[in-house]
Amino acid sequence: MSDLTKSEHVTPPGASDPLSVGERELDRFPNPGLPEHKHRLSDESEAGSKRVERQIVILFVLSLLASIGGVVGYFAFPVGVTLGSVQASTLSIGLGLGVGMLGIGIAAVHWAKALMSDVEQVDERHAQRSDDATRAAAVQALKDGADDSRIARRPVLKGALVSAVAVAPLAFVVPLVGNLGGDWNVSKFRYTMWGPGVRLARDPDGGLIRPEQVTIGSVWHVIPDGLLGSEHMLEEKAKAVVLMVRMNPTELTEAPERADWSWDGIVAYSKVCTHVGCPVALYEQQTHHLLCPCHQSTFDVSDGAKVVFGPAKRALPQLPITVDDEGYLVARSDFTEMVGPSTWERERYTDLPVSDEEKAH
């Protein structure tokens, strides 16, 4: 048969297309069959089955204890008191969630592999919709499978499963619900520790900064002088943290009303992203772009920290700076707008005069 004849050969609908193998013609490949079924230890003895059941119960109990531990950790280590309490709270909740879910997952896999039926089943090809008798048989097979898992005859195992699954979500539901009753006074974000004459200090050691120390292209993480050791250090740092950059003054594009907000090419902007509040700290020296690692919002530091890419809708608030009589970098004032993400009430707290009495509240 020529190549052309072969390519034009068409098998009539409903007829088998024989495959020539030497002098034989086969309608189909031979069925290789199934390998010999290997029984598991839990199949061969009741003692082995009980041992596996105990292992699964232990895994569910560990999950249960871990989930409870996460909830206890939430109450035992209040967030915001000290840095150590934040770390302890995060660790306890994270371990509770992780070990709780991991225990359920491992137990479920072990249960499926060691106790549920692993007998090979063969289903021949059939039409997409089976007849009623076959569908009824399929439902019966599912019921038989549930019976074969022996869950009805294993009350301890069933109880451990239900308890672990019921308690596991509490490790993240309780902190979520607890935080819903927190302080929703967004006006607190209008004012920070910055103010006229407050010196810029290095984060985290608190060293004061002179402009000659800041080289072109360098990036400094800055906090207000006096923040370290203060009563509400964590809350105030979350609002006041600043990123400072120095570039060639000729590369700066400044609005007329902000002409005196920088010092010889040194500019300072809030480090809190205006999208959802992540720390913006990835600086690209060649483009002067500042990147938020959470959702890739990108700000142009050379042009008022305006948004050039990403979901953020507002530029980063700028901190006006100057140099005091002793040669240290200081703030001219607080931020002129609320830092952080947008809120429904943000406009109420923007461009308001800052009084000491209001800042105290």
From TrEMBL:
Ranges for domain Rieske: 239-330
SUPFAM superfamilies for the chain: ISP domain (SSF50022)
InterPro entries named among the record's database cross-references: QcrA_N, Rieske_2Fe-2S, Rieske_2Fe-2S_sf, Rieske_Fe-S_prot, Rieske_Fe-S_prot_C
Function: Iron-sulfur subunit of the cytochrome bc1 complex, an essential component of the respiratory electron transport chain required for ATP synthesis. The bc1 complex catalyzes the oxidation of menaquinol and the reduction of cytochrome c in the respiratory chain. The bc1 complex operates through a Q-cycle mechanism that couples electron transfer to generation of the proton gradient that drives ATP synthesis.
Keyword RNA-binding: no
Molecular function per GO: 2 iron, 2 sulfur cluster binding; metal ion binding; monooxygenase activity; oxidoreductase activity, acting on paired donors, with incorporation or reduction of molecular oxygen
Species lineage: Bacteria, Bacillati, Actinomycetota, Actinomycetes, Micrococcales
Protein name: Cytochrome bc1 complex Rieske iron-sulfur subunit
Subcellular location as annotated: Cell membrane
Membership in a protein family: Belongs to the Rieske iron-sulfur protein family.
Superkingdom of the organism of origin: Bacteria
